[in-house]
Structures are given as C-alpha cells and as structure tokens.
Specification:
Number of helices: 1
Order of helices and strands: H
Distance between the termini: 42 Å
Structural class: mainly alpha
Largest sheet: none
Number of strands: 0
Strand content: under 5%
Helix content: 55-70%
C-alpha cells in the first residue's frame, strides 16, 4: 500500500516537472532583454 502511494507520488512529481520544463519555459523570458545579455 505505501509502495503504491510512493510510486504514484513519484510519477506525479515527474509529470509536473516535465510539464513545467517543456511548456512553461517561454514565459520566463523578459521582453526588455536583448539578444546578448544573460537574463536567465
């Protein structure tokens, strides 16, 4: 029972991490930032 909960919790964390990495990446860019600066 505990193993199943930990498995689904780990799967959920992995899915959330992948969604944030691939789909919300472009929202962090600053429009005032030029092409040659290190804004992040």
């Amino acid at each position: 029972m505990i193993q199943e909960i930990l498995t689904y919790l780990t799967l959920g964390i992995a899915v959330v991490f992948l969604i944030k990495k691939f789909f919300f990446k472009k929202k962090k860019t600053d429009k005032n930032c030029g092409d040659n600066c290190n804004c992040g």
